[in-house]
Design brief:
The protein is mainly β. The protein has a single domain, classed as Pnp Oxidase, Chain A. Helix content is 11%, strand content 35%. The chain contains three helices and 15 strands. The strands form five sheets. Strands 2-1-7-10-11-4-3 form a seven-stranded antiparallel beta sheet, with helices on one face. Strand 1 and strand 2 form a beta hairpin. The two termini are 31 Å apart. 28% of the residues are buried. The mean pLDDT is 94.
C-alpha cells in the first residue's frame, strides 16, 4: 500500500488543522462554561479535548485564539478565576451547542436567548448547563502555551450526571441511556455513538 507524506510543520502547515480534524475522529466535545469578572456566563464548544487520568481526575482541552495573540473568552475567563465546567453533549443539546460557537463580543453571553438553563456549581462559582447529560466541575491546574496553541489542564472536582443515566447501586453509567455525539471533520460534521460494539479481552 502506498501513502502520501505531509509536513504539518512546514510545507503543509496551512492544511494541518483540516487534516488533523478529519483524521483524528470522532473527538469528544467539551462544552465549556466560564464566568467573567462581572459574573456573566460564557459557553463555548471545543473538540480538542479529552480526559487524561483519574488519580487525580484530570482533563484537558485546547481553546484556540480568536486571532493571533488574542485569547478566546473561555481562556481569558479561566486565566482570571481559574475555574470552568465541561458540559458533555448528546443529540438533545447538539443544536444549542453549535449555536454557542458563534463569535460574540467579550462579555455577551451565549446563554441569553438560548433556552438553556443554568445550575449553580457545588465546588466552583461557574454554573453548569442543566440540559447537558453530564457536567464536570473543574479547577485549573495549569495552562501550557506552545506556539499558537493553549492547553488548559483541569482537575475535576465534581461530576453531575443525568439521573436516568446512572446505575445507582454500581455507580456506573448506563450506556443504553448515554449517547454523546462526536466531532468529525470541520466545519459541520458530527457523529452519533449509538452503534457500539464489544470486543472482550481474552
Amino acid at each position: 500500500m502506498r501513502s502520501i507524506e505531509l509536513d504539518p510543520l512546514g510545507e503543509h502547515s496551512d492544511r494541518a488543522y483540516s487534516l488533523l480534524t478529519a483524521l483524528v475522529t470522532p473527538r469528544p466535545i467539551a462544552w465549556v462554561t466560564t464566568i467573567d469578572t462581572e459574573g456573566r456566563v460564557n459557553a463555548a464548544p471545543f473538540s480538542f479535548f479529552n480526559v487524561f487520568g483519574s488519580k487525580p481526575a484530570m482533563l484537558a482541552f485546547a481553546p484556540g485564539n480568536k486571532e493571533p495573540g488574542v485569547p478566546k473568552d473561555t481562556a481569558r475567563n479561566i486565566r482570571t478565576n481559574g475555574e470552568f465546567v465541561v458540559n458533555l453533549v448528546d443529540r438533545s443539546v447538539a443544536e444549542a451547542m453549535v449555536k454557542t460557537s458563534a463569535p460574540l463580543p467579550f462579555g455577551e453571553s451565549e446563554i441569553d436567548g438560548s433556552g438553556l438553563t443554568l445550575a449553580e456549581g457545588s465546588t466552583v462559582k461557574v454554573p453548569h448547563i442543566i440540559e447537558a447529560p453530564a457536567a464536570l466541575e473543574c479547577k485549573e491546574h495549569s495552562t501550557v502555551e506552545i506556539g499558537g496553541n493553549r492547553l488548559v489542564i483541569g482537575i475535576i472536582q465534581r461530576i453531575h450526571v443525568r439521573e436516568e443515566m446512572m446505575l445507582s447501586e454500581e455507580l456506573r453509567i448506563d450506556l443504553d441511556q448515554y449517547h454523546p455525539i462526536g466531532r468529525m471533520a470541520s466545519p459541520d460534521w458530527y457523529c452519533g455513538t449509538e452503534d457500539c460494539f464489544e470486543i472482550k479481552r481474552g
